[in-house]
Amino acid sequence: MAQPPVPLKDMKLLDVKLGQLPTWLAMRDFTPGGIVGALRRGHDRYYNKYINVKKGGLGGISMVLAGYVVVSYIWSYSHLKHDRHRKYH
Fold first, then answer.
1. What is each CA distance from 79 to 1, 9, 14, 89, in whole angstroms?
2. How far is C-alpha 58 from the geometric centre of its chain's CA atoms?
3. How confident is the model at residue 85 (pLDDT cuts 50, 70, 90)?
4. Three-class SS of the chain
5. CA 82 from centre of chain
6. What is the reported pLDDT for 57?
7. How far apart are CA 73 and CA 58, in angstroms?
8. Helix axis angle, 59-75 relative to 77-84, nearest 10°?
9. Is the model's pTM score more than 0.70?
10. pLDDT digits over 19-69, tens only?
């Protein structure tokens, strides 16, 4: 037998069709409590997948470090862009 269709509210973002995206976004919880809950679920998922494992490696820690490097570069890009065309002599 076929599986019953999943309600749009319970669908994951990758399963939503492009035409259903505005409706799906309207059903999300954008209150401060909803945003904090989403961040908490994301942190828990990341922690359980990469940090809290039996045989851990450097994968989880290196992703955090790479994210920090990218964010630091974005924050200092305007300063780096300004210094790019300066002559040193």
1. 61, 43, 37, 20
2. 20
3. low
4. CCCCCCCHHHCCHHHCCHHHHHHHHHCCCCCHHHHHHHHHHHHHHHHHHHHCCCCCCCHHHHHHHHHHHHHHHHHCHHHHHHHHCCCCC
5. 30
6. 73
7. 22
8. 60
9. no
10. 989 998 898 889 999 999 999 999 999 888 877 877 767 877 888 899 999
Task: Select from 69, 51, 70 the least CA-distant residue to 60.
Answer: 51
* Residue whose tokens read 């679920």: 41
Residue written as tokens 């973002």?
A: 13
Could you identify the residue written with the tokens 């990758």?
14
Given a contact cutoff of 8 angstroms between Cβ atoms, the answer to whether 16 and 8 are in contact is yes
Copy the structure tokens of residue 82. Answer: 């300004």
| Amino acid identity at 51 | I
Place of tokens 């974005």: 74
Question: How far apart are alpha carbons 37 and 31 in whole angstroms?
Answer: 10
Write the single-letter amino acid at 66. Answer: A
**Are residues 23 and 13 in contact, defined by beta-carbon separation less than 8 angstroms?**
no
